[in-house]
Amino acid sequence: MSWWEALILGIVQGLTEFLPVSSSGHLEIAKALLGDTSLARESMLMTVVLHAATALATLIVFRKDVVEIFRGLFQFKWNPETRFVLLIVISMLPAAIVGLVFEKEIEQLFTGQIMLIGIMLIITSLLLYLADLAKKTHKSVNPMDAFIIGIAQSIAILPGISRSGATISTSVLLGIDRTKAARFSFLMVVPLILGKMGLDILGGEIAYESSTLIPMGVGFVAALITGILACTWMIKLVKNSKLKYFAYYCFIVGTGVIVYYAFS
Prior knowledge:
By secondary structure, this protein is an all-alpha fold. The chain has one domain (3-263). The chain is 77% helix and 0% strand. It is built from 12 helices and no strands. It has helices at residues 3-18, 23-33, 40-61, 63-73, 80-101, 103-108, 114-133, 143-155, 163-173, 178-202, 213-239, 244-263. α3 (40-61) crosses α10 (178-202), α9 (163-173) runs antiparallel to α10 (178-202) and α10 (178-202) packs antiparallel against α11. The chain is globular, with a radius of gyration of 18 Å. 42% of the residues are buried.
C-alpha cells in the first residue's frame, strides 16, 4: 500500500468513524476502488491503526470529560463518574462477547464483501431516519439502556452498519437526550478499540514490515486530524436533529454499491 492510498483511507476513516455512515463499510469500499490486494491480515492491520487514530481523536475531543471521569474514579466512591464507567462497561459486554466468540467469522466480513456492505448501509439509513423523527427528551442513560445500546454496537460490527449511527439512533429512540447520546456513543467505543489492539499485540496480529511503517503513519495522522473535526461536527448535528441527511446519503451509497456490483 502506498502512502497516498493510506492518506485516502485515513481521511475516509476519520470522517466516517464519527459521521453515521459506517467507517468499516467505507473503508472496504475504498479498498475495493483502490484495488487493494493486501492479504486479510495486512488489511486488518491498517484498519486497526486507523481505528486507534480515531480512538485518540475521541479522547482529545472529550478530554475534559475523560479527566473528570478519572478524577471521580480515583475518589473510590459511588459518584456520577463511577456510574458512567459502570454504564460503559455494561455497554461493552455484547460487543466483547460477539468479538471473542466470532472473531474468525468477523475477519472474513472484511475481505471485500461489498454487496453485504450495500445492504447494511441501507439498514443504517433506516435507523438514522427513524432517529431523526424521534422527539427530544432529557432522559439520561440507565443500565438497561446501556445494555441495549451495547447490543446495537455489537450489530454494528457488520461492515456497512454505522457504529455511531446505530448507537446514537438507538439511544435517541430510547428517549435519551441527544447530546448525552452522542457523548455516550463516542466514549463507549474507546475501551473496545484499545482492548482489540491489546489482543492483537498479544496474539502477534499486528506484526508489520518496515516498508509499511510510513503508510501506517500517514494514515494514522490523516485519521486523527479528520476524526477530531468530524467528531466535533457530529455532536452539533445530533443536537440539531440533522441525521436524516446522512440517512439519504447511506441509502444512495448503499443502493449504488448494490447496483454497481450486481451488474459489474
